[in-house]
Amino acid sequence: MTGRAGLQNAVVVLLDSLNRHMLGCYGGHEFDTPNIDRFAGDATRFDNHFVGSLPCMPARHDILVGAMDFLWRPWGSIELWEEALTAPLREAGVTTMLISDHPHLFETGGENYHTEFRGWDYVRGHENDPWRTRPDPSWLGTPALPASAGVGQYYNVSRTWFRSEADFPGPRTMQAAVNFLDLHAETGSDEPFLLFVDEFDPHEPFDTPAPWANRYDPDWTEPLMIWPPYSVKTVERGVLSERQARHVRANYGSKLSMIDHWFGRVLDSLDAHDLWQNTAVILCTDHGHYLGERDIFGKPGVPHYEPIGHTPLLIRLPGAARTSVDALTTNVDIHATLCDLFDVTPKHVTHGRSLLPLLEGSASSVRDWALAGVYGRWVHVLDGRHKYARGPVGSDNLPLSMWSNRWSTMPVHQLPGLKLPMPDRNARLDFMPGSDIPVIRQPFRPGDLLPYWCLNQKPGQHCLYDLHNDPEEAENLLGTATERRLIDLLRAALEEVNAPVEQLTRLGIA
């Protein structure tokens, strides 16, 4: 099989929590990213790319399934009425390979994404992957430096087994990707492939060995602070001191530069085997990560300000111009682009727009709006210039339902008692847009325990920003004619994706 314009293969590298504003190719100067910048020099840079469904697994659902799900559920696996991109690719004769150290793909709430790939390689030990039950008895003298325990009770054990930089999960994942590309070239295979590298770095823990540790904070002498808080008014409330805040941010930079270094090895393999002639390469992320901007750290319950919502996207397509694109794009468009590249058509309802017309220069835009959000929090609509985040208008964050036939979500290891509310006798059967498969719809009532994603959501906390004139999002334009227009756009966008009517009611725009 040969795809569009003679393309045969695709490589997708997803770096988790990759901050656009910290990359050299996007104007960042704080940390070194020479290999991402090297790739960007030969790629199309998308300047107006935004998240869709958040956080981690919902974002992967956008990319691998092509359908936003944050309006229906908070976090979960592939549902019965849909299929991953890997299914039509398999039918088309494309070999699909997943290489990942992302633990959420291999636990409750993400349990069937990897099984749809022809092959998959899970690199163990990142974040709170329950990999080892005892520390390495020969840990003394290994490169793992003293670090604060934070929330990483499993990682604190796993890190004792990393005996060199190459043992850390991120480097091992990138080396596994290199091994796949090398083997493909050495065997002379002409089978088309999709290699999906889901790399959890630079996501926390911001743990690195020498020479990366304290690269950007050489005066720090205490144990490394590798676990950022998830908090607002972080320094103001004393969650971190100003000095600690700088240190945590610097540790993110160390992790970013380390994984950039290993991403360079993937580029070297593509160079060595001359795969650029028939291989599309995409570098993307699920979301950014607050590191002190607006005194916010992590991914707490706030609107999608620029650091977390405005994300990098770089695509190198054989024959495409090395340029920048200002058109509005979002993560479901990556799925649509891969479908277009391999000339396959999904069988379920999707929400993406192929980016090939932008890459080939035959169009200047592919969409007029984009939706983004976390289940039960703000719903954002973007028009390419403005960002409008609208929250619930009622104090109970209702009406709201969860739609799923796979009742699971992300486990919180440090809080094992925190579970997703189970469906009860209020549940009913309903239907997702475009599907005849019944789905369990659990409507929540006043006093019900809501999924923890949407707890403590205050009413009436809307915000609107002109990103062209106010990229720092300092002036809230609520009450203006622009807000009235964006409310109409939000309503139209929700209706176009056939969002539950209750979402419009919850937002006060029905």
Written account of the structure:
Helix 1 (34-40) packs across helix 6 (242-272), helix 2 runs parallel beside helix 8 and helix 5 runs parallel beside helix 6 (242-272). The model has no long low-confidence stretch (mean pLDDT 94). The protein is an alpha/beta fold and 510 residues long. The chain is built from eleven helices and 20 strands. The longest helix is centred in the middle third of the chain and has 31 residues, at 242-272. It is globular. The chain has helices at residues 34-40, 56-65, 86-91, 155-158, 169-186, 242-272, 306-309, 332-342, 356-360, 481-496, 501-506; strands spanning 9-15, 44-46, 49-50, 53-54, 95-100, 119-122, 193-199, 279-284, 290-291, 297-298, 313-316, 324-325, 329-330, 370-374, 379-382, 386-390, 401-403, 428-431, 438-443, 463-466. The protein has two domains: 4-360, Alkaline Phosphatase, subunit A (3-Layer(aba) Sandwich); 374-506, no CATH class.
